[in-house]
Amino acid sequence: MPNNASPHYSPDYCHNVQIYYEDTDFSGVVYHPNFLKYFERAREHVIGAGVLSRLWHEQQLGFAVYKTEMLCLEGVEFADLVQVRTRFYFESKYRTVWLQEIWREGGKKAAVSATIEMVCMDSQRRLCPMPEALLHSLSQDFAAPPGL
Question: Model pTM?
């Protein structure tokens, strides 16, 4: 059931990405599926690789993309250094919503923006609530909605 209250966003997290030739198409512009990889890397930095690894190995819990909406507003090119700006909120104990943007150096607006919904699942691919310890660690920098 969606949370109808106004979401409480995390602080902005920034992750820099160097654009390599292998990331681009024949014209030197980033091939659009690679933006999803950059967003994934940024989310991993927010949560922490060690935390994700322990969740899987100790509790058989992980995250899966449930829904994605992405807008490619400007091209990102070979040799660009871009910044992935990320913030998120808890939709429920089961789902987080990530608002992510890719900014070119000196850009006046985001080159790419996405809203990505993630759900917590077990090894049998069943929806599961996020562990309380994870909810607590992810929400310690901001006020999570009551009831989470």
Answer: 0.89
